[in-house]
Write a structure and sequence with these properties.
Oligomer: single chain
Largest sheet: 4 strands, antiparallel
Helix content: 25-40%
Low-confidence stretches: 1-22
Radius of gyration: 20 Å
Order of helices and strands: HEHEEEEHEHHEEEEHEHHEHHEEH
Number of strands: 14
Strand order of the largest sheet: 3-4-7-8
């Protein structure tokens, strides 16, 4: 009996899933205004929230704070939310292909997509992100139940090259970049290991608000969430020692999420726990609100 078109597509999806190479474009709802991200990475301090004026640390197989069931070890120069921005943007450009295919983009196109401006400082920042993700090594161990454990490790990028015309300088934003994402990333980006977020408002947020938006987006969005302020402080990788000041920063970041329509409301309870209670919105609710 001849297979129907739907059966053929499902068989192809199953084959790619087993090989860890499902094209990201097959993810339902991945439209140009959304970005896909790994739940495991967003639930950790891998892409930390730190004062940009402080130098970045270097790690050697360091354990990054994360939720239960996830262990992330990282070696390399410290990653922050700007690195996560760049990583998600490149995954978005690669969504029509298999993970591991090359992404081609000029420096100017990358900066425009990130809304960083085109100054020399912005371009240096972008190239530094490329360098960190090429050199850094991430090991992720996922544990489900008592016996199901998976470990895998990789660089976020497999290689990076840049080409320019003879009339241009290699430091010019006209440089054409070729970036090959690591195929092993399919283990933490495809299927139920991946989630989508709205991109336009996210790009405008402060680093802590970005981290919170991405963190809460990895949860079931028809539920409410309760975390201690101290837990969120640890999970986002903050090094701020004055917790009273940090809680004020947390409150301002949560207000950003309310203003952007990503969450309906929040409360921060009294001491000693300072429990943070968040009522989220689903992507469907966010889309509906924007269309009205």
């Amino acid at each position: 009996m001849a297979r129907t078109a739907l059966q053929i597509v499902k068989d192809l999806e199953r084959e790619h899933t087993e090989a860890g190479q499902l094209p990201l474009k097959l993810t339902p709802g991945w439209s140009p205004d959304k970005r896909g991200m790994s739940k495991s990475l967003a639930r950790s301090a891998l892409f930390a929230v730190r004062d940009k004026r402080l130098p970045r640390e270097r790690y050697d197989n360091a354990v990054m704070a994360s939720l239960d069931g996830i262990e992330i070890r990282y070696s390399g120069e410290e990653l922050r939310q700007d690195d996560h921005d760049v990583f998600m943007q490149l995954c978005h450009l690669a969504r029509d292909e298999h993970i591991g295919e090359e992404v081609h983009i000029t420096g100017a196109q990358a900066l425009d997509g990130l809304k960083w401006g085109r100054s020399d400082e912005d371009y240096t920042r972008l190239r530094s992100c490329y360098k960190r993700m090429l050199e850094g090594t991430v090991y992720v161990t996922l544990t489900s139940g008592k016996s199901n454990t998976r470990l895998f490790g990789s660089h976020l990028f497999q290689y990076v090259t840049a080409d320019v015309d003879n009339s241009a300088n290699i430091d010019s934003t006209a440089a054409r970049w070729t970036i090959k994402l690591n195929a092993e990333l399919a283990n933490i980006i495809n299927g139920n290991q991946m989630t989508l977020i709205k991109w336009a408002a996210d790009k405008k947020m402060t680093p802590l608000a970005k981290w919170l938006h991405r963190f809460y987006a990895t949860h079931d969005r028809d539920k409410t969430f309760d975390y201690k302020a101290e837990t969120l402080h640890r999970l986002c990788g903050s090094k701020m020692s004055n917790m009273a000041t940090w809680r004020q920063n947390l409150k301002r970041a949560l207000e950003e999420l309310v203003s952007a329509g990503f969450i309906k409301s929040y409360t921060i309870g009294p001491k000693p726990s300072y429990m943070v209670h968040v009522v989220a919105r689903t992507l469907a609710e966010i889309d509906a609100a924007e269309s009205n």
